[in-house]
Amino acid sequence: MWYEMADKKQWKRYVGYALFLFLSYSIGNAAAVVSTMTLQPEKVEKEMKTVAITFDDGPNPEYTPKLLDGLEKRGVKATFFLLGEEVKQYPDVVRRMHDDGHLIGVHSYKHVNFKEVGTACTLQQIEKTQKAIYDVTGEYAGYIRPPYGCWQKELDAQVNLIEVLWNVDPRDWATTDADTVVQRVLKDTKPGDIILLHDASASSVQAAFTVIDTLQKQGYSFVTVEELLLE
């Protein structure tokens, strides 16, 4: 869907450039416009190379602050899907996350599988997490990533949140080897993708920094999930 939207945007730009060229030619400025059109496709392609990097299961009192330091240094905005019980324990970390301009979403309160606990418990998990986030940031989250990617469609009518999954999952929680995580991410990432990581280990944080540095050198820019979905 993101690629189709991007293609339509690019097509509209080219139609606009063609019309501008025709009008400019009539007044003798075609040469200048041709020069602009030659450079413009590269600009469009650069604008399309966006990805969202996301982190689940936080905040972590040890590793999330280090991650926030590195994101600030690199000028990157990320998306964090938080556990309500961790928000309650480490509000200062969440407050900094919010103040730094990152997008905060709901994960669950205790990392339960929504399909296993039933509708009533799921709604309670979401409500408690929303309240915990609001108590710290003054804002309710607009997005949710259900643990294990397990969602019940009947909840769509009861939960005013946008479900967000992922395209790239390096399973960083299953290894302490940052290089392995980096290789998995770089192998699979394409423009428009959502990368899933966690901010609960040194290896995951280091892998995130290497991924960001490498993709930025390749011309990628990092945006929040909200910015990516609205492009």
Automatic annotation (TrEMBL):
Annotated EC: 3.-.-.-
InterPro entries found in the cross-reference section: Glyco_hydro/deAcase_b/a-brl (IPR011330), NODB_dom (IPR002509), Polysacc_deacetylase_ArnD (IPR050248)
SUPFAM superfamilies according to UniProt: Glycoside hydrolase/deacetylase (SSF88713)
Keyword annotations from UniProtKB, A to Z: Hydrolase, Metal-binding
TM helices/strands, residue ranges: none
GO molecular function: hydrolase activity, acting on carbon-nitrogen (but not peptide) bonds; metal ion binding
Gene Ontology terms describing biological process: carbohydrate metabolic process
Keyword Hydrolase: yes
One Gene Ontology term, aspect cellular component: membrane
Domain NodB homology: from-to ranges: 49-223
Keyword Nucleus (UniProt): no
PANTHER family assigned: CHITIN DEACETYLASE 1-RELATED (PTHR10587:SF133), GLYCOSYL TRANSFERASE-RELATED (PTHR10587)
Record-given protein name: Polysaccharide deacetylase
Species the sequence originates in: Roseburia faecis
Gene: pdaA_2
